[in-house]
Amino acid sequence: MWLPIAFLLVGIILGLLTDIRVPDAYTDYLTIAVLAAFDTLLGGIRAQLEKKFDDIVFLTGFFSNVALAALLAFLGVQLGIDLYLAAVFAFGVRLFQNIAIIRRHLITNLRNSNKLKKNTGK
Amino acid sequence: MNAVSKRNKWLMSIIFAIVGFMAAIQFQTASSEPEFRDTRDQWEVRQELQEQQKVQQELLEQITRADRMLEEYDEVSDEEKLETLKESIEQLEQQAGLTTLEGSGITIKLEPIFQEWEEGAPAYPTVSPSLLTHLINELNTFGSEGIAVGEERLVSISPIRNVNGDTYVNNRPMQPLPVVIKVLTSNPQKMLDYVNASRSRDMFALDDISMVVEAENNLKLPGYEDSLQLGILEFDSSKETGEN
User: Fold this and answer.
1) Could you give the count of Cα atoms lying within 13 Å of A49 in the half-sphere of its Cβ?
2) In this complex, do A7 and B22 lie within 8 Å of one another by their Cβ atoms?
3) pTM to 2 decimals?
4) Domain contains A36
5) Is residue B228 one of the residues assigned to a domain?
6) In whole angstroms, what is the distance from residue B108 CA to residue A84 CA?
7) Is residue B27 part of a domain?
8) Residues from chain A contacting residue B18 (CB–CB below 8 Å)
9) Domain count along chain A
10) Cα nearest neighbour of A44 on chain B
11) Is the pLDDT reported for residue A44 higher than 70?
């Protein structure tokens, strides 16, 4: 559990240290890519908690989501429609859903472990 | 099973790192402001410094002058105080252009150019307000100390407008051509050269008006006759840099 968090911190620090700035024209793409990444990440955590985690699904999901989101943003720019808002909306909704499910899983896990402790304590 | 979960862990970790990297870049991009880069080189900075020093010098001189005046007020008797007050009023009136001014300068005589036209008689040329404003702006940049268009003394709030097709100066119609513009300056020869080489001459020529410029040693400018209405002016102490 600690390894991913450590790597997340390493990634953040690396990102801050490299001092890379995306040009204004591409900020939309990055925004949506970050959102897609968060979505996939939370989906992965949820799958892990549900014990349905599949590394191939996770990996392909991560990259295809990010690529698809960027493609959608690109298409939107070309057509003059703010299509990236659709992606933001979809990912946003899924983000909240996933977080809710993860929260429930954590609560049930906590309760179960508490019960287990009580039972063993008695 | 164990090997698989370990691989998953590393996979997750690397994905986490990528996400963190992306989020950090996004954060940096979002929080970065369009930076203002100072691209002046050393020489330009030095020039700027010199300019600012000049401004400072002027301000200091102003302070000294004001201090001296204050001292005069403090030291002398009431009668002399009145005298000083009158003097400063006179000085200010002179600066504002309310008094007649005498000195050396140039006269610019605007005359119509008559050409033979093939079809019909041309209209009698008139000076348009924009043309006159342009000329006066040029004269001011060349360093004039006072300008009068005909008998109208120009002060800093003198309007030059088009009213029903006529050019009005100081809210009075300008007399038809020929018109003499008197310009007071300490160096008439230089001003003469400036005006002769200026673009105004060509622009006036386009409107069929010629400029005859002569230097004169004894020129008399009339004072501004109307009252100065300064009700709409506001004093901005932060921008006030004193008289020019």
Assistant:
1) 19
2) no
3) 0.45
4) yes
5) no
6) 67
7) no
8) 11, 37
9) 1
10) B12
11) yes
